[in-house]
Design a protein that fits this description.
- This protein has 507 residues and is an alpha+beta fold.
- Among the domains are: 92 residues, no CATH class; 186 residues, no CATH class.
- It has 17 helices and twelve strands.
- A four-stranded antiparallel sheet has the order 3-6-1-12, with helices on one face. Strands 4-5-2-11 form a four-stranded antiparallel sheet, with no helix packed on it. The chain has a four-stranded antiparallel sheet with strand order 9-8-7-10.
- A hairpin with a 4-residue loop joins strand 8 and strand 9.
- The longest helix has 25 residues.
- The chain is globular, with a radius of gyration of 29 Å.
- The two termini are 46 Å apart.
């Protein structure tokens, strides 16, 4: 059997296998082929880590209660080797893990799936009792002056809180306020709560997480909620803006702490978040059938949420690789390497296309100029590449600092660009410049940017993102297509133009 026939046979099997698995998930499991056929479903996974201190261990995690606008599809607990119970009191739910002893650090998980049914607020709630803070004599005197100043310039509890947070955000505080916020071990939010309590304003913390797709290791965030006698008003202490942020999921409203650990040290609560593109009925079906359907048990959905977010980006790489293969094999566009355009396209996804192009051209251009100077020093290859890497990092840091000082925050995404690839690209282009001249550098550099832009446009489409994550078996079919393209030995499109004179009839 010839190699061409073997490749064709293997490629056909791979293409059929990938398409077959995708059709099975579509027909039997109800996975949607189009991204528009969905309800946005968020998967939140909380991870509790701690170091045992010896003796009995008791861990209590506050669970999110039902709130207006949000529906909890399902939740799951991981409690290997621990006693586990869910306790409810006064409308609050707590998950409790217990164990007599433990000799190693461990991690506990709690996962839930939610979706927004209506865009409504939190509504009313019980008004907590005001407990004036315990202050020293000098701090009480400063607190009285700060409260008096804010009350004179405000018309109620809402405007009082807005003025207080505005001063805190803009750092335009008088001596008394600076004394309160600058000489205390607690967080500035704790000082804000003390000021509100001293002023006789009912307030409470609203703890939760910001729903950002692919976010890992997110800490619990706190908002401030004040009562004006009739309604509750929420403020974001980091911006001073009123209102509940649209992407903020309330984990606990008022009450005690979110996490309590007895018998453990260095406890930490982190969240991983992934946005699913499946209909609600499909998600429910998956949760019910994950133990019965072997395909679901070995799918990406069986991985921890933190790793699911990583694979959402990794599964786009074969799509970018296909673009590079098509451009190089069928069209004949030369690029500086195979993987560099793909990685640059991934960086463009994290940043914006225009910002990424400007940063790339600026860093590579400056790097080529510095590399031309290093070539005169006759350094060894390893030392020269290391020097280029250091120079690239310095350039990226300088670009970020300068852009931030001038108010261009988008340039801060320069950190998403692959540093090592940039350094190696500068090195290769420099050698190419010395051996082939600047014309060849422009051709390969322009081809690399063209491939990166086209890969970015394809990888950033909603349909491709949906299919790559929900139907990763299509990568098997993609592998078969790449094998078929790899056996192509005909003319490239650029070669048709190159040899155009051969097609002209003899005169």
């Amino acid at each position: 059997m010839s190699s061409r026939l073997q490749i064709s046979l293997v490629a056909g099997i791979l293409i059929a296998l990938g398409l077959g698995l995708a059709l099975y998930k579509k027909i039997e499991l109800g996975f949607p082929l189009l991204p528009g056929q969905r309800q946005v479903v968020w998967t939140l996974e909380s991870k509790i880590s701690f170091i045992p201190a010896g003796g009995p261990i008791e861990i209590s995690l506050a669970l999110p209660s039902s709130q207006a606008g949000w529906v909890v599809l399902d939740d799951h607990f991981a409690s290997s080797g621990f006693g586990f119970t869910v306790m409810a009191s006064n409308g609050d739910r707590h998950a409790q893990w217990t164990r007599q002893s433990l000799d190693r650090s461990t991690t506990l998980y709690y996962k839930l799936q939610i979706y927004r049914a209506d865009n409504v607020g939190l509504g009313g709630g019980p008004v907590p009792d005001i407990e004036p803070p315990e202050l020293t004599t000098d701090r009480q005197a400063a607190m009285e002056r700060v409260v008096a100043s804010l009350q004179e310039r405000s018309s109620g509890s809402v405007s009082f809180t807005a003025l207080l947070l505005q001063q805190l955000v803009q750092e335009q505080m008088d001596q008394d306020a600076a004394f309160l916020f600058g000489n205390r071990e607690e967080s500035k939010l704790a000082v804000v709560m003390d000021v509100l309590a001293f002023a006789g304003i009912p307030s409470q913390r609203v703890r939760g997480v910001f729903l950002e797709d692919g976010r890992r290791r997110q800490q619990i965030n706190s908002l401030v909620e004040v009562f004006d006698g009739k309604h509750w008003t929420i403020f974001d202490p980091t911006t001073g803006q009123p209102g509940l942020p649209e992407n903020f999921f309330v984990w606990r409203r008022g009450g005690t702490s979110v996490l309590d650990v007895v018998g453990g040290l260095s406890s930490q609560l982190e969240f991983a978040i992934v946005k699913n593109t499946l209909p609600i009925k499909t998600v429910l079906f998956m949760e019910q059938q994950v133990g019965e359907q072997p395909l679901l048990g070995f799918s990406i959905y069986s991985l921890p949420v933190e790793h699911q977010g990583v694979f959402k980006g990794l599964l786009l790489i074969p799509v970018g690789a296909l673009v590079v293969v098509l451009l190089r094999v069928l069209i004949g566009i030369r690029t500086s390497g195979t993987f560099m355009p793909i990685l640059i396209a991934l960086a463009f996804i994290q940043a914006t296309l225009l910002t990424g192009l400007i940063i790339f051209l600026a860093v590579v251009g400056a790097g080529l100029w510095i590399r031309s100077y290093l070539s005169h020093l006759n350094l060894l290859l390893v030392a020269r590449i290391t020097a280029v890497v250091i120079v690239v990092i310095l350039l990226m840091a300088a670009l970020s600092i300068v852009s931030y000082k001038f108010g261009f925050n988008q340039a801060l995404t320069v950190t998403f660009l692959p540093t090592i690839i940039l350094a190696w690209t500068i090195e290769r282009m420099s050698i190419l410049w010395e051996e082939e001249g600047g014309h060849e550098v422009l051709i390969q550099g322009g081809g690399s940017l063209l491939a990166a832009v086209l890969a970015y446009l394809l990888m950033s489409t909603a349909l491709v993102e949906h299919l790559s994550f929900n139907f990763p078996e299509l990568m098997i079919s993609l592998l078969g297509v790449v094998l078929l393209i790899g056996k192509y030995t005909g003319y490239r499109l650029t070669e048709l133009y190159r040899f155009r004179d051969l097609s002209r009839p003899d005169k």
